[in-house]
Amino acid sequence: MIWDQYRNNMEKYAIKIDDMASEDAYFMATHMPFSQLEVYEGGQISTPPLLMTEDMIFDQLIYNQDNLHRVIIVRGNNGTGKSHLIRYMRAKLVNSPTTIYDPQKEEVVFLRRLNNSVRGAFSQLLEQNVIKDTELADKLMKFVASSESKDEASFKTEILLAYIAAVMNDRSNQYYKAVDCRNIAQYLSDGRVQDFLMREDGAISRCYRVITAPSNQVLKEERIFTEEDFGSKEAQKVNRTVIKDGNPDSQDFVQTIYGNDDEVMRLVNYLNQFTNNVVQHCADISSESTKSVFEKMRKDLKKQRKNLTIFIEDFTSFTGIDSELITALSSPHTGEYDYLCRVTAIIGITDGYYDQFKDNFKERVTYQINVNERSYGTSDFLVHMTAKYLNAIYCDPEQIHTWNQSGASLKDLPISDFKTPCEWESVEINGQKYTLYPFNRKAIKILYYQLPVKTPRTFLIGVLRKQLKEYFDGKKYGDEWLFPLNPGTVAMTNDPHSSAIDRSETFSVEDRQRIKGILAIWGDGSAAGTKTAHGELYIGDINKAFLSDINLGDFGPIGQITERASDSTLATGSFPETAKTPVTATPPSHVPPVVLKKETIAEKNHKRWKEDIDTWFNKSADLQYDDDYRKWIKEFLIGTSNQPGAICWQDLGIPAYIVNERLSNLSAFFIDGQSNSGRDTRALVYIERNAESHDALIALLEHEFNKSWDYNGSIYYQQRLIVWLERQKRSLFEKVIAADSFENKLPISEWTLALQFIRATLFRYKIDYNSDIKAIKALFSKFEKPKDAFYSTREWSDLVSYISSKEAAFDSAYDLLTKSTNTTMGAVALSKDPKTRAYHTDELIDAINHLNANNWNILKTLPEKTDQNILYNPAALLKDLYPRISTVATAEINKYETIKNNLITYTGELATENLLTVFNSIQELFSVFGQNGIAVKSKLKDKYIGAPIDITNKILRAINLIESTRNQEPVLQLATLYQNTFSLSEDDNKNGTALTLLTDFLHDLQEIERLTQSEEQKAKNAITGLTGNTTVDTVAEFAKEELGKINELLSKMEVQDVTKRNNY
Amino acid sequence: MLLSETITNCINAINEKRAAQDRKKSIEEFSTALANLNTVCSQLGTVTKCMKELKKLGIISTPVMASTTRDDLLSSVYDCGSGIEDGSLSKDTVKIFTSHVNTAKAELNNAWESNAGIYSDGSRGYISMIAGLTDDPKKTRELEQTIQKIASGAISLKQINDLISSVAAANEIKACFSLEPQIQIFLQKVSSEQATVADLTPAVQEWLKEKNLMDKLKICF
Fold it and tell me: What ipTM was reported for this prediction?
């Protein structure tokens, strides 16, 4: 098949992976003349260059009719075409008539880049019979043979040891003193350093590749040692180990380079200077013998009265003998060197390598030719190159070979008979017409600028070869078309049309991308249809026949088909002014300046976002800036403080607060293929990767860029965005309100009111739940946990603690209640702190009525599954709370039963008469205690100081209240128990419950009993101590006896008769 | 047990305790009165013995205790005895008895103060005058001072006996030292440092020689 043949021509002849490997016939058939080569005289670039065409260079420098000594360096970066130029010069020379090139008088040596290892260079020297010295030739042959067979590891070791030996023997003192050289040698001898240098990307491996790379490998190595070998993080790690436990000499040295970039650089330069010596050592050749290779050759040629023209595509491959080579070639053939023949040396060299060239060698250079992007001349260079390669591919190889053998005259170059399916762009070169099919100028330009590295070589490999392969395969197989490949983010400029193509279900996703690629890269960026007077249909400025040719014939134009202007018969790109300009050898006098309009930051961002969104959709790439897009979507849906959103949420019955809470976080938005982490299953707004979403994002992008909806094309974008929104709306609403249907929205008010009621009950706030309005007002309060509260049961206390631990959830539910039932004025975002109070009372009253109807226990109505979000949190809390409330209610009743039974043991049946008896007794007891100085706590005494009938009534009222709750729902049971307060006295706990009152009463009775029993025992003990004293009786008997004696004594006593005496 | 029953038991126990406490208090008071009574009885015994001795040894010639005092004492003895008998002896009863005993004590002290000096001054004055002329003037003077101290001190059975024995000793010295009146005058002047050479009458000088006192007297200017 012809398509197989074309592909074969391309891959086998015209565009090989290494373009320099193409054979001469195709090389000549596809050669593109350089029109603006910079030429410098001498080895420096201090003077401005002369701009010359390649033919001018050939005539003035290569064709050396005056027999002048010339060393011409062809410089340029990789891929700019140095080798191509040198190869062309050589071909032009050897194909020139004898007046210019006479093989009898001129020896031509051509050293290819293909074999640019040292081994390859030596091989070529041997093959071209340059080396006349048989001994040297033997050595080189031996080296070439051994380097092929030698084990890599041992060869590397040999290389390393050669470097170490060179350093060890260095006595030059140029870079380092001898003692330092010894230390460096010790450092390089360290096993860890050796391993590191011999790693895959290490210096020794590079040197190994430079010497022995296979002949089909193109090397890029310029320096053997680099900073990476001694200054990288890994190298520093190795150096640390040497510092730690290396040889003392190596330790001394490594200290100097550790963390010192300048010293590392010094060492790198130092070691690189030994590379030549090392290579020569490995090849077992001496510097002198190497130099003699060319000397001897020149001598021999002189004797033969011949001159030498030597072409070296890549001088880098002569590492090891480069300095000898340049020395031998740079010697003039006059004066003391008149025994040598004249030399014209054309040497290709990269800029990087040339910069390392020693200054003395630069002095030996007579001309420099700089090959760069400007050397290609105008942008037509690429078009012409494409045309030539296409022609070579479409031609029969026989024709090309015959043409080459016939002198390869450009004007005689065979032109292919390739038939385009329609009239197509072509280019005229040297009077011949070359088709560009299946490319056009615009496509060539765009595809070239999409290349990351823009050189002719990368264009050939990365664009022509790749695209043509797909084109040929498509034509051959007829299905699974991939042509054209869209290399980057080239998108149609007409977004509506692009969007329409995206939405077209007639084509597969791949074909849609192909159509868009063709229209974007080949066409005018639209899918607008035009028709010529002859009835030929053009879509996006592309002939419909081309689309049919690439199996896109079913694609039709979008919109109305208009009449095509008569001069627009060709699909044109950006080069109309040069489309028909023939290639000329005359160089332009100057390089036209390129004036670029500086992009603003907004424009840059717009471009960046646009490319990101297009690539996301077209190439299924991840979005890079999805945070921005999700923010736009969010603001579009809910607005900002400055602008309303696109949806009137409250009009639709969805509270602004809920919308804001649900959609304020970007995690609620998920775009398929977003680079930021997130969970699509948790997102409320899910943006699929489809045409509609793409359009919506582009619409938001344009809005962001234009800061309004008033711009060109805005109607279309708004329409697309609204379409997207309307399609999303129902699902969005349902997700925002977390309900499976809009009608079945969650009873948020009921749940949150129930939660408030529970919290109020347990915190002992009084709620009149039988009155709906009063209950709503009361439940709109924020309930705080009471301070210094006393809880009648541990279960109650535990539940209060639990509620306190869930304060955030309760507060969130409170906010949900008070804010979601309120009306927000303005943007949704303002619902956080509403300034108005306009509640949906009807909804709240319904909720209260429903709660009352269910006795405030709605456990059975709660959803089985509750998601973790602000809407379901109240339900989840309620489900958690109701069982706990039942537990508390049960605990309250159980405790009541226990206390009641205990009380009965003190009072008998809890009836009025019995209680009166107890209280009377207590009062009598306290009275007796008072009379006998027995202290009683005043707090205890004061409780029972009142009228016994009043205290009795308090006790009985508490009992009756508890008994009345036995058949209530637990939550109402607790409300009844906790919302009524009881106390025995004014000084007692005024906020007690019925149960705490009974508990206190029981404790009091227990205390009184203890006190009573204690005092009774004390009294009994005292009575025992007060009886049984007999001593006094004995004393009394003795006293009686004494008195008897005294009575007798006095009776007998002589006394004065005082009466008589007084009478005296 | 119902709390009201527990309370009743407690109140009863407290009342019983209260009664026991009252009883204990009255016993304690009775005991105190008995103790005081013993003391008073003991004092009264001593007083009556002294009174008897004074009379018996001739220091006084009439009974010391007044009849009214004895009547009061007998009355108190009766009251106290009655109190012991019915257990109602109080501190006040003993206190009255004590005051009567103190009255008896006062009567005794008055009798001693009035009569002890009278009984001992004659003998004590004489040995005071001749003390320097006796063989043991120091002892004589000590005796004189002892008599004076006893007669002016508090009365007790021991003091009474000491006074009797001291006066007896003075009388013995006095019996050994009988003087003419003119000798007594001379000695009085000497003891008051008023004697002159003119008082050395021949009788005096003779008496001095007889009593071998010539070398014991010196003339001072």
Answer: 0.78
